[in-house]
Design goal:
heterodimer, A: 496 residues, three-stranded mixed β-sheet, 73% helix, globular, B: 497 residues, mainly alpha, 20 helices, 2 strands
Chain lengths: 496, 497
Amino acid sequence: MGVVDPRPLLAPLISFACAGLVFAAGRNAFWRRFWSLSAAAVKLALVLSMLPGTLRGVVYTFDVVAFTPGIGIAFRADAYGMFFALVSSTLWTLTTIYAIGYMRGEPDRSRFFGFFALCVSTTVGVAFAENLLTFFLFYETLTICTYPLVVHAETPEALRAGRVYLTYTLIGGGFVLLGSVMAFDAAGTLTLAQPGILPADAGGATLATIFAALIVGFGVKAAIMPLHGWLPLAMVAPTPVSALLHAVAVVKVGAFGVTRVIYNVFGVELLQDLGFATPLAWLAAFTILAGSAIALTQDHLKRRLAYSTISQLSYIVLGAALLTPFAATAAILHVAHQAFAKITMFFVVGAIQRTTGKTRVSELAGIGARMPWSMAAFTIAALSFVGVPLFAGFVTKWYLSLGALQAGAGVFVGVMLVSSLLNAAYWFPIVHLAYFRRADGGDEGVHEAPPLLLVPILICAAYVLLLGLTTQVPGMPFSVAQVAVERAFAVPAVVP
Amino acid sequence: MSVAWEQLLPWAVALPFVGAALTPVLAARSPRWTGPWAWGVVLATVAVTVGLVAHVAEAGAFTYAIGGWSGAYGIELRFDRFAAWVLPLSLLFAVIVPFSWRYVVVSLEPARWGAFYALLLLVMGGMIGFSITGDLFNLFVFMEVTSLSSYALVAVGGRGVAAWAALKYLFLGAVASLLALLGTALLFVLTGSLNLADVAARLGPDVARGPVLIAFAALVTSFLVKAAVFPLHVWLPDAHAIAPSPVSAVLSGLVVKTGIVGLVRVVQLFHAADAVPLAGFHLALAWLGAVSIVMGAFLAIFQDDLKLMLAYSTISNVGYIVLGFGLAAPYAAVGASVHVVNHALIKTTLFLAAGALIHQTGFRTLSDLRGVARAMPQTAAVMAIGAVSIVGLPPTAGFLCKWYIALGAFEADRAPFGFALVFGALFIFVYYIRMVNALYFQAPVHARVAEATEVPWSMRAPLLLLAASCLVLGLLGGAPLAFVEPAVAGVLPVGGP
């Protein structure tokens, strides 16, 4: 049921206006904070106001401009888009609070917060994109807007990371454009509102090229191996940027793109006939294991987090590529699960860096006694990644395994198990170090992060628990994901 | 409506020419007023062209016979949808002229002010005349008016290098003009007419094929030189980089497009006549365009001089336009036609912003201009928007055209050109990202750069307006595309690719 409503347009527009106001505020810290926080709050309220409708099955649409029939800028808030928009606007609010605390005293803060707002604007634009063109438009704008954030420190290292980042993402963008043009040529439309637009008779080679171009294009940001090279380098950015952009916005936009390609450009039926998704599933499985294996070897905290991100993102890709309702549920849910757990970890790592100056795993002995609240949050996130029941990550793994069995590919259940073990192998040592070892130098007692950093950390950790516990509660993210899956498969996605 | 809109047509040419002729008279009395005077003339021309475009949108192509002598005997002006680019052209002049005020006052002695504005008006009049003439010989005449005033404008800075660049420009321009004259003369001998429509009608199958091909080749080569398509581009970089920045904007954004308009006119002329194998010609154009895109981008990467870099990027962008026409697919031709205008806008934005940076700091290379964004945030932002537009990233003016051209490549089943186009754009981004990096993310090396102030409002307002237009044309880019669409059938080979 479609309803014309300006809210899908207003949501990205608010952050856009916020960016303008932040730039205009210049060095005035009060107005910069005021605009950043109020825009985040208004946006969250706006997205939330659409939630009841979404749960009833209402789809809000808004056409901005059509260049020619079939090519235009249009917005559409379907269940999956809503899910993604909810995650990113919730996290934007929390990250803004965190960033205000974290960036205190850094140079060029108006540039930082301005582009920060622009990034969220484009992320929600991607979530609500009605067609591939609108999607591409925001996808590329996101690339441009994250660049100043990545090179924020302006050190040679940051500039180099920025260069690598742009090289990867722009080439990826080129592939997306290529795939979009070819898809339009084949289908005559670019809408994402249907379960598949490409005609089966377009020719195997053409369809294969489109699939490869779009998956490679989005796969760069989703960091599917071997397209992941930019992500560990981009960790040079300030921690709030790494947190929001490299755990949520940028990488999730890539993963979101992959799922849109599978469910809305090709469609499940066409892909089942063509069989293109199988190699993608294997690639995702490889990335899950290889990413975790590399994470094991990293001593630098943010780099370990980066490789863990690479591994976790491929859960989403794998879930989408399995082409079954349960796996799709897992893919959609993991957008939120990974986001909240990973952002908790990033926040904690940033807080540790700010309060103690420590950036390496090996330096963390005894940190649990110094920063008990932060480390408790970190532990919750770690348990979620390992997939312990009651935590969000378990729900993903459960549904992903069910989905793999539905698809008759039990081997991926094995992948899940091995991945859980690997996750335990690289998260638990940190927890162990933090709680069961004593710091080398004398103990200085409790020295927690300042409230502006600690409060967002605790809220995010609470969300991780909430997401794991409330799968049966109506109105929670899980039910939104179910609505989204029902749209794509036309079958209910609940355990029979 | 009862107003005879055709009557406006001669005014579009006459206004700038008369305005140019009167400028020295005014300059003799009070040189200060030549700038506002030129602006007034440009604005009047804008008003006329608005009327013309409104009429062509409503009633289709129309003609005006000067002095009532129609057809083969008299001089005919003709206004079609391709000629409608004179509106954006004169609008851009309406921005460039006020931008030049400060520049002229600072860099030229008062005795030259009048000449500067008179030449600008002559270039504009020449281009408008070139675009709306229906007569082959006048095509040549207006081309010469444009070119000769351009040579003078390049040299107006007055230093030795400028003269040398102008001379190189003059030599190659002269060769191109002679070729155009040769083609025109041949067609006149063969058909006994100079009127474009008339020549097309008389080029029947009984006309000797060899001379027609030579005439065709001569005209096409001439216009390709004017458009600076690789490898006929050698005159362009120095001339465009050395000239004063407002002049660079005119030359790079607008004057090279006379080559494109000329090309369109030639193709229109030979479109119906079966005398020339147009399909093969289009394929050759597509290759030339693709090579231009890549080579222009490749050469630009090595430039440290900001304006030289922009000049090479013009070669790339002309390549996009030529490729678009060469693909012989409706989508691509529409995209190429609109890119003529969009590139003019974007390149004007970039050259004027570069001019503003150079004007305020006195430096012109990227390595000297490092970190200037802190001191001149607005100008740098304009530069960055221009850079994003010219790469063709959405949602800017450059995007839709390239989308259409790429779509045309697949429509015509020439996927390799589509690949080349998409990844050519990435190549172009490499050197623009260097520019943005230098302006924004590197520490200043010169005190003068760190302490520079923003440009005065007479320069800043045009810049901000141009940057806003780059964004607006990206979001509302559908209108020009729809406007030009009915006309492109006239430049495609008959019977499809």
